[in-house]
TrEMBL record:
The protein, known as: bis(5'-adenosyl)-triphosphatase
Enzyme Commission code: 3.6.1.29
Recorded catalytic activity of this chain's protein: P(1),P(3)-bis(5'-adenosyl) triphosphate + H2O = AMP + ADP + 2 H(+)
Organism ancestry: Eukaryota, Metazoa, Chordata, Craniata, Vertebrata
InterPro entries found in the cross-reference section: Alkaline_phosphatase_core_sf (IPR017850), Phosphodiest/P_Trfase (IPR002591)
Top-level division of the source organism's lineage: Eukaryota
PANTHER family, sorted: BIS(5'-ADENOSYL)-TRIPHOSPHATASE ENPP4, ECTONUCLEOTIDE PYROPHOSPHATASE/PHOSPHODIESTERASE
Enzyme class (EC, first level): hydrolase
Record's signal peptide: 1-18
Length: 452
């Protein structure tokens, strides 16, 4: 009973302080494929300046599969891929018979089962905006302001539009929530591999220069210090090699299945007995794990959706699945298990809603959504995230980390136990009359006989 009361009190304090939080506009920026350890490997002076005035989460545990579209949709919904339905870069929907690809992604059918933050904020009466964020140009599901995807639009152009949208036209408030997407350092990570220090140093220098531009533009427009800014990413990057190829044709004739997605997570629809196809694939390669859909581990949160195909193959870190041959498609890749540090991105944030000088080792990426809802004071849709850890990043929130709360409760219980035992021992000492209760041998005095 006591721990429950204590916890209730603590969360009551937390809730009360949250209610007093005033909301400011929020800008969410994603640099695709920014692996968490780039922060240690490369200088990044502008990014470091940004989080020195705010918070840093060194590693985000993102969602499986660790690809761009699933993770960007998770950031704005707080949902695992199986729940929001954007499961991969290439999908097949067996109910509608439709196919999804990065070139054919704007059918609302794929995106409509859940509501991204820009729609929720609109329902709360706010204008919203997005520049190239995956899913933000889908018909009838767009923010107030948006672009159709065009990789040729420069970072500066995207940024200039976002700040204009956030400033408004002077007659009504600007966008309360805006999201900005940039393709680097993902593109360089694929082309050169994350272990190519020279090439990645150049790519990361450009990313850091863009972060400098972002900070300068926010200062020039007067938005710096008035809005909350989150800079994050969707996934990391692993080094691949032509020496680490897994060839499906070595194990199974291609006539036996339809391939929906290939690497590093292959999705297959068997054309004949699924168990037989599975048993061939299960023994195909020591660096590739095969799963029947029903056996995909719970922890991946990647089973409960009809768009997940009957057989899933997951390559080990740095291995590439191909159909045949010796050609390596990319020197760097992502999509692997989300438990791998190489797949993790980071998060940095600053603004009036954030604490200053706080660093956190890790956070679940699905926790960012409830954090953003709290910052905007809009009601969160049902999600897989939690504010339990994320609230420690926020100014004006009482932060009680779970480990501290548990330690406090255990300490108080221990103290109460010791006091009770001591009291009973003192009460059990022999006096003139009969002893009131049986003593506790292991803590009380030694040579006295037990009361019969
Ligand atoms: Zn990529």
């Amino acid at each position: 009973m006591f721990p429950r009361l204590l916890l209730g009190f603590l969360w009551g304090v937390v809730g009360a302080s949250a209610a007093e939080n005033n909301s400011q506009p929020l800008l969410l920026v994603s640099f695709d494929g920014f692996r968490a350890d780039y922060l240690q490997r490369f200088p990044m002076p502008n990014l470091k300046l940004l989080y020195s005035q705010g918070v840093l989460v060194e590693q985000l545990t993102n969602v499986f599969i660790t690809k761009t579209f699933p993770n960007h949709y998770s950031l704005v919904t707080g949902l695992y891929a199986e729940s929001h339905g954007i499961l991969a870069s290439t999908m097949y929907d067996p109910i509608s018979g439709k196919h999804f690809s990065l070139q054919n992604d704007s059918d609302p059918m794929w995106w409509s089962s859940v509501q991204p933050l820009w729609l929720t904020a609109q329902e709360s009466g706010y204008e919203t905006a997005a520049a190239m964020w995956p899913g933000s140009d889908v018909t009838n599901r767009t923010p107030t302001h948006f672009f159709h995807y065009d990789p040729d639009v420069t970072f500066q152009q995207r940024l200039g539009n976002v700040t204009n949208w956030m400033l408004g036209d002077g007659k009504k408030p600007g966008a309360m929530f805006a999201a900005l997407y940039w393709e680097e350092p993902d593109r360089s990570g694929h082309n050169f591999g994350p272990e190519n220090t020279t090439a990645m140093a150049k790519a990361l220098k450009e990313v850091d220069d863009n972060i400098g531009l972002l900070m300068d533009e926010l200062k020039r427009t007067g938005l710096w210090g008035r809005i909350n800014l989150i800079v994050t990413s969707d996934h990391g990057m692993a080094q691949c090699s032509a020496d680490r190829l897994i060839r499906l044709d070595d194990c199974l004739h291609p006539d036996n299945y339809t391939l929906v997605d290939l690497t590093p997570v292959a999705a297959l629809r068997p054309k004949e007995d699924p168990e037989r196809v599975f048993s061939l694939l299960n023994e195909c390669h020591p660096h590739m794990k095969a799963y029947m859909k029903k056996s995909i581990p719970d922890g991946l949160h990647y089973r409960n959706n009809p768009r997940i195909q009957p057989i899933l193959l997951i390559a080990d870190e740095g291995w590439t699945i191909v159909r045949r041959g010796n050609k390596l498609p990319r020197l760097g890749d992502h999509g692997y298990y989300n438990s791998l540090p190489s797949m993790h991105p980071f998060l940095a944030a600053t603004g009036p809603g954030f604490r200053q000088g706080v660093q956190m080792k890790s956070l679940q990426s699905v926790d960012i959504y409830p954090l953003m809802c709290r910052l905007l004071a809009v009601p969160a849709q049902p999600n897989n995230g939690s504010l339990t850890s994320a609230r420690c990043l926020l100014a004006g929130e009482s932060c009680w980390e779970t480990s501290v709360v548990i330690g406090l409760v255990v300490g108080v219980l221990l103290l109460l136990t010791i006091i009770t035992v001591l009291f009973r021992c003192m009460g059990s000492r022999p006096t003139a009359g009969p002893r009131p209760f049986q003593r506790l041998d292991f803590l009380c005095d030694d040579d006295e006989p037990l009361v019969p």
